[in-house]
Design a protein that fits this description.
Blueprint (H helix, E strand, L loop, with lengths): L15 H12 L11 E5 L2 E4 L4 E4 L2 H4 L8 H13 L10 H12 L5 E5 L2 H20 L5 E5 L8 H6 L3 H4 L9 E4 L4 H7 L4 E6 L2 E2 L5 E2 L2 H13 L3 E5 L23 E4 L10 E5 L1 H4 L15 H15 L1 H24 L3 E7 L2 E6 L4 H9 L2 E2 L1 E2 L4 E4 L7 H17 L1
Parallel strand pairs: 3-15, 5-6, 5-7, 7-10, 10-11
Antiparallel strand pairs: 1-2, 2-3, 4-12, 8-9, 11-12, 13-14, 14-17, 16-17
The structure holds pyridoxal-5'-phosphate.
Pyridoxal-5'-phosphate binds next to helix 5.
Length: about 400
C-alpha cells in the first residue's frame, strides 16, 4: 500500500515521479544535479521508486546506509528511544550519548568523543580543537593547517578551506587563511608544507570524493613522523571511509598509523544525521567548557540508533564478511579491466571502489541506472561503487555482470 498523505492529491503509479520532480524543481533550491527518479522506500540493499521499480543500491546514500534499508535492530532502537526521549539539551547528560562515546573510545585510538551532526561539522570542530590545542601549548603563531590536493572535507567555510579542489573553493573566497596544500602521496612535498607553525595536518587515508585514491603506508607514516617532529596534530577524516567501509572498523587500521583526532559521520546513525570527532587525551585536555557546542549534537535518539549500528559494524565477523566480499568484487572489477581497455585503473578497498576511465564516467552511471543499478562518480572520470556493507555475493556478481554488458555494448 502506498501512503500518499505526503503527496497531496496525487496517486501512486504513472506520472507521480514526473509530478514530484516538477514540484521539486519549482520549490527546492537547485543546488543538486539529481537523476530523474523519486525514491519512496528501501528494502535490504534495494531502493524502490514511486512507480514501484526496484534498484540495486551501490551508492548507499553516499556511504551512509551501511546496513541497507529496514534493519530490524535499527528500527527497534528508533521506536524504543523515540518513545522515551528524542532530544534534551547538552546542559544535561543522557544514557545513549555516554554509551556511544564509551563504545567509540573502547574500539579506537581515542580517549574522548565530541558529537555533532555531519561530516563537515566534525571537521570544523577539529579545526577549532587543533587551534585551541596549539595556542594553549605553543602560543599565537601556531595556527597553520595542511591539507591535500584532491581532498574533500565538506561544504562549510572551514571544511571547504581544507578541500584542495578549486571548484569547491573559488566561488566562495576568501577562505580561512593559513592553509597549505600538499600533493597527496608525495612524501617530500607534504613534509615541506609542515613546519613549527603547523597546528594540524588533515588527511583522508583514502581520498574518496577525489577519485578513490588510497594513501600509501609510507606516506601516512612519513606524515605522522613529520607531525611529531613539528608538534603538529594529525587528523584523519574518515567520514566516508571509516566505520567498516574499507573492511576494517577504521580505515587507518590498514596502515598502522594513528591520528591525534579522527572525524566520522555518514553511516554512524543508520541514516540519521550525526558527526563525531574522536580525540586523544592530550588534545582533549586543551578544550574547556564553552569552547565548542552543537544544539543537536549527541542527542539521545541519534545516539541510541548509532549504538546499534556501531555494535553491528564493529563485530569482527561482520567486518570479515565485508573483506571477503571485497576480494570477490575487487577481483571481478580487475578482471574487467584486463578485458576492456576503456578501464584505465581499478582502485578500492572493502566496499569503496573506483574505476578510472579516460572519459567522463557519468554516462556509465546512467547506463547502470537504466539497468536498475545505482552507482555514482568520484570526480569526472571515476565510476564509484559504495554498496551497503551488507550486500551479498550474488548481488555483487550481478553488478559485475551488468558492468560487463555495459562495457561490451559500447
Ligand atoms: C571525506 C569526507 N569528509 C567530509 C564530508 C562531508 O560530510 P557531510 O556531507 O556529512 O558534511 C564528506 C562527504 O562526502 C566526505 O566524504
Amino acid at each position: 500500500m502506498h501512503d500518499n498523505s505526503q503527496s497531496g492529491s496525487f496517486q501512486a503509479g504513472e506520472g507521480v515521479s514526473r509530478e514530484v520532480i516538477q514540484r521539486s524543481k519549482e520549490f527546492l533550491l537547485q543546488n543538486y544535479a539529481r537523476a530523474d527518479v523519486v525514491f519512496e522506500r528501501g528494502e535490504g540493499v534495494y531502493l524502490v521508486d514511486a512507480e514501484g521499480e526496484r534498484y540495486l543500491d551501490c551508492v548507499s546514500g553516499l556511504a551512509v546506509n551501511a546496513l541497507g534499508y529496514g534493519d530490524a535492530d535499527v528500527l527497534e532502537a528508533l521506536r524504543e528511544q523515540s518513545r522515551k526521549l528524542i532530544h534534551v539539551s547538552n546542559l544535561y547528560y543522557t544514557i545513549p550519548a555516554a554509551s556511544l562515546a564509551e563504545e567509540l573510545v573502547r574500539h579506537s585510538f581515542a580517549d574522548r568523543v565530541f558529537f555533532c551532526n555531519s561530516g563537515t561539522e566534525a571537521n570544523e570542530a577539529c579545526i577549532k580543537f587543533a587551534r585551541r590545542w596549539a595556542r594553549t601549548h605553543f602560543g599565537e603563531n601556531k595556527t597553520g593547517l595542511v591539507a591535500a590536493f584532491s581532498s574533500f572535507h565538506g561544504r562549510t567555510m572551514g571544511s571547504i578551506s581544507l578541500t584542495g579542489q578549486e571548484k569547491y573553493q573559488a566561488p566562495f573566497e576568501p577562505l580561512v587563511p593559513g592553509i597549505r596544500f600538499a600533493r597527496f602521496n608525495d612524501i617530500d612535498h607534504t613534509v615541506e608544507q609542515i613546519n613549527d607553525n603547523t597546528a594540524a595536518v588533515f588527511l583522508e587515508p583514502v581520498q574518496a570524493e577525489g577519485g578513490v585514491h588510497p594513501a600509501t603506508q609510507e606516506y601516512l607514516k612519513a606524515v605522522r613522523s613529520a607531525c611529531d617532529t613539528h608538534n603538529a596534530l594529525l587528523v584523519f577524516d574518515e567520514v566516508q571511509v571509516g566505520l567498516g567501509r574499507t573492511g576494517r572498523l577504521f580505515c587507518h587500521e590498514h596502515y598502522g598509523v594513528e591520528p591525534d583526532m579522527l572525524t566520522l559521520a555518514k553511516p554512524l546513525a543508520g541514516g540519521l544525521p550525526i558527526g563525531a570527532a574522536l580525540l586523544k587525551q592530550h588534545v582533549a585536555d586543551a578544550i574547556q567548557p564553552g569552547d565548542h557546542a552543537a544544539t543537536f549534537g549527541g542527542g539521545p535518539l541519534i545516539c541510541a540508533v548509532a549504538l546499534v549500528v556501531f555494535r553491528k559494524i564493529a563485530d569482527p565477523q561482520f567486518l570479515e564478511k565485508v573483506r571477503n566480499n571485497s576480494a570477490l568484487f575487487g577481483g571481478r572489477l580487475r578482471a574487467l579491466k584486463e578485458q576492456y581497455s576503456a578501464i584505465r585503473q581499478v582502485r578500492g578497498m572493502g566496499m569503496i571502489w573506483g574505476v578510472q576511465f579516460d572519459e567522463p564516467a557519468a554516462p556509465i552511471v546512467a547506463e547502470f541506472r537504466k539497468r536498475h543499478i545505482l552507482a555514482c562518480v568520484a570526480g569526472p572520470n571515476v565510476l564509484r561503487f559504495l554498496p551497503p556493507l551488507v550486500i551479498g555475493e550474488e548481488e555483487l556478481n550481478h553488478v559485475a555482470d551488468v558492468f560487463a554488458d555495459i562495457l561490451e555494448a559500447r
